[in-house]
Amino acid sequence: MQVLVFDLVGKMAHFRKYYANNTAMSFSVPPRTTLMGVLAAMLGLPRDSYYEALGGQHLRLGVGVRSPLKKSFHRLNFLKVEASRDLDGSKGHIQLPFEIITGYDLTRDMVRYRVYVAPTVSGQPVFDQLVGQLMAGKGPHFALSLGTANFSATLENVQLHQQARPTTSQEVQEFHSTVPTDRIQHLPSTLTGGVALSLEEELLPADFMGDYQRELVAMNRVLFSTDGQPLRAQVTGEYLELHEYGETQRLLFLE
Predict the structure, then answer these.
(1) 33 membership: H or E segment, kind and range
(2) Which of 33, 117, 158, 173 has the smallest number of CB atoms closer than 10 Å to its CB?
(3) Structure confidence at residue 194 (pLDDT)
(4) pLDDT at position 80, please?
(5) What is the pLDDT at residue 244?
(6) How far apart, in whole angstroms, are the C-alpha atoms of residue 225 and residue 228?
(7) How is the chain split into domains, by residue range?
(8) With the CA atoms of 62, 66, 70 and 74 taken in that order, what torsion angle do they form, in degrees rounded to the nearest 10?
(9) What is the residue-wise DSSP string for 76-134?
């Protein structure tokens, strides 16, 4: 199986939880729907036109946390809009809490996510187009961001693994991606080297109904570490192993 791997890196991130009305809370990791938007920006696809082409039936996507994350709330001024005529700012402003993801030290730390992309049989053409775009050094067609447009992102460590092989194990393994909760058979003590890991479980939007239709048809419930360390778990079924620079990365795709 071919797997395209790259890091999304930036100073700040915000992936808004769509069900929060008066508080802009953020998911800790980019949902699959956000990753679809990132890939669409790389390919130069028009807004909302890629939901089917990059959907779960064509591309398998995974994501992992590669740097310690911290969340903090800040109050931002938003337009007070009660009707469409209020978009001109005539109603004034309202302050709302806005949750931002950063590293522990804002002056030197970066937010870093590792993204994994693999094609299904029907998704091979769009996958080949994506590989050709990135491996040729052309870079993304549109500017990338970590959620909102003002939180710009860059690509690093772009690699193509040609022969990633599925494997299984009944042992506890270290996973470098988010792990679907229903795949976890056993979760041992989170202590690693005497230090407790920070774990989070979230329910993330996965796929839209169709092009230009932003109604959700699938969700992903996943568990992951927010301190950049692998998650130790025993899982059911197959997972992928990637080998690079003497390191073995184990990953599960968002399902």
Answers:
(1) helix 32-43
(2) 158
(3) 56
(4) 86
(5) 76
(6) 6
(7) 3-77+95-251
(8) -60
(9) EEEE--SSGGGGGSTT-EEEEEEEEEE-SSTTT--EEEEEEEEE-STTHHHHHHHHHHH
Instruction: Identify the CATH assignment for 3-77+95-251 out of 1.10.10.10, 1.10.260.40, 1.20.1260.10, 3.30.70.2660.
Output: 3.30.70.2660
Strand ranges of the sheet holding 165-167, from the earlier edge strand across to the other edge: 165-167, 239-244, 247-251
Residue 133 CA to residue 43 CA, distance in Å, equals 7
What would the DSSP string read from start to end of 135-152? HTT---SS-EESSSTTSE
Whether 174 contacts 231, CB under 8 Å: yes
Tokens of 66: 């590669």
Q: If you compute the radius of gyration of the chain from its CA atoms, what whole number of angstroms results?
A: 19
Q: Which amino acid is at 169?
A: S
The low-confidence residues of the chain, meaning pLDDT below 50, are none
Where on the phi/psi map is residue 139: left (φ > 0), alpha (ψ -120 to 50), or beta?
left
Residue 52 confidence (pLDDT)? 96
For 197-252, the pLDDT digits (tens) are 789 999 999 999 999 998 999 999 999 999 998 999 999 999 999 987 678 899 99
- As a whole number of angstroms, the distance between CA 74 and CA 33 comes to 25
